[in-house]
Amino acid sequence: MTIDWAALGQVFGVTLVVTVGIVGLFTVGIVGASRKPAQEGAAVAVAAPGAGARAGAVTAFALCAAAVAYGIYLIVAA
């Protein structure tokens, strides 16, 4: 039995990049969902995220969900 080290290294590299990318995208979604809009001189106890931050967070979470769904598709379809 022989091991194709080049192919193994390529799989490792792609897996590492995709994993870091999805985790980073999820982090962007969390930051966008928790971002508070700037308030002028008012101390607000609870503030909802702005519309742009919320849209970015939803987009980031949707891309994460699409990546996970595609991964499940690849596993199940094979």
From TrEMBL:
Keywords per UniProt: Membrane, Transmembrane, Transmembrane helix
Organism: Streptomyces kronopolitis
Ranges annotated as spanning the membrane: 12-34, 55-76
UniProt superkingdom: Bacteria
Full protein name: Secreted protein
